[in-house]
Amino acid sequence: MDKIKEILNNSKSIVITTHKSPDGDAIGSSLALYHFLKKKGKEVSVIVPDAFPEFLKWMDGSSTIIHYDTNSEEAEKMITAADLIFSLDYNGLGRIGNLSNPLKDASAIKIVIDHHQDPQEFADHYIVDVECCSTSQLIYELIENLGELEKLDKVIGACIYCGIMTDTGSFRFPSTTSKTHQIIAHLIEIGVEGSKIHQDVYDNYSEQRLRLLGYALTEKMKVFPMHNAAYISLSQKELKKFSFKKGDTEGLVNYLLSINGIKFAVLLTEKEDNISLSFRSKDDFHVNKIANHHFNGGGHIYAAGGMLETTLEEAIKKVEAVIKQSN
Ligand code: 5GP
Ligand code: MN
Predict the structure, then answer these.
(1) Do 307 and 275 touch, CB atoms closer than 8 A?
(2) Residue with CA at minimum distance from ligand 1 atom 17
(3) Under CATH, which number does the domain 207-325 receive?
(4) Per-residue pLDDT averaged across 146-162, rounded?
(5) Residue 162, Cβ density class (10 Å: 0-12 exposed, 13-18 middle, ≥19 buried)
(6) CB 3.0–4.6 Å: which of 16, 95, 121, 285 could bond 263 by disulfide?
(7) Sorting pLDDT into bands at 50, 70 and 90, what band is 131?
(8) Tens digit of pLDDT for each residue in 268-315?
């Protein structure tokens, strides 16, 4: 912490980066740190590799976020000028797409704050806790350990609340600890409106998104009771039929785990030039190794992701084979 304090004191221009397809924890932790550092008088910008869902845009500062895919010139200027770069909620350069190029070349000091396993060596300092439910909780703990909790206001608190809420499945995954609840209690005490944040994130579906959920569950869900597994696959054509927008399939894979006996859940989505896979599990079934061994990915023990450069049909075959051999 002394080292981090010293680095912060010596930095003027700071860039915060997070992973591709940013989720609630990625945006929440980035904006919480952004507001905190602004309060400390720093020049700060948040750079993300690509777009993030509409339901995260209520967060203060979200409109200032620079998207690398559509605004690479400005992003590169910021990165070159920065004396400190934070990498939040990702454990390797493979998670940030082309944003890894300017980041690799940057002369700034680099600090990773993350809760994923096996961080790769690309930074100078690491604040990593794989037991922690979210990077947003790590930001709270950072502010706490710096002895600056008095700077934590409603705006910062709302971003942290959102990140913890989304990464813990609304405070129910096993990563939710008493410390998590203590942090949430403190946030509520300073005026963060938990139920409003819940509504902004979860009661913000388009009609088409809810219909896509219904279609996926009734028409596309395949259950393998003998293997305690289930999957849903969605093609580009199907997604287009429901006017798919980024974030519309967020959380869909979790529904599969609500079936009695199902411990292993997979969502396959056909992207423009690959198949994206999302894995969830519970109890003694761990998905990070499966994602890593078979699907070019990784993640946490109960939530992981991967990617295949095949057709959707081939990807489905592979998933079925893995389901049949793994449980
Ligand atoms: P999601 O299914 O929500 O996209 O991802 C679930 C979890 O797995 C997230 O914590 C995410 O960081 C991680 N994850 C997703 N895709 C990948 C990947 O390709 N590589 C690694 N290492 N982790 C991933
Ligand atoms: Mn996270």
Answers:
(1) yes
(2) 305
(3) 3.10.310.30
(4) 98
(5) buried
(6) 285
(7) very high
(8) 999 999 999 999 999 999 999 999 999 999 999 999 999 999 999 999
Cβ-proximal residues to 165 (8 Å cutoff; 6+ apart), any chain = 24, 171, 194, 197, 198, 201
Nearest to 29 by CA among 37, 39, 18, 38: 18
How much is the pTM?
Answer: 0.94
303 CB near ligand 1 (under 6 Å): yes
Query: Tokens 């770069």 identify what position?
Result: 85
| CATH class of segment(s) 2-202 | alpha beta
**Ligand 1 pocket mutation, candidates 48, 95, 128, 274, criterion most atoms within 8 A of CB:** 95
Q: Which is the closest atom of ligand 1 to the Cα of 25?
A: 10
The CATH 3.90.1640.10 portion of the chain extends over 2-202
Distance CA 172, CA 303 (A): 14
Q: Read off the amino acid at residue 229.
A: A
pLDDT beyond 90 at 129: yes
213 lines ligand 1 (CB under 6 A): no
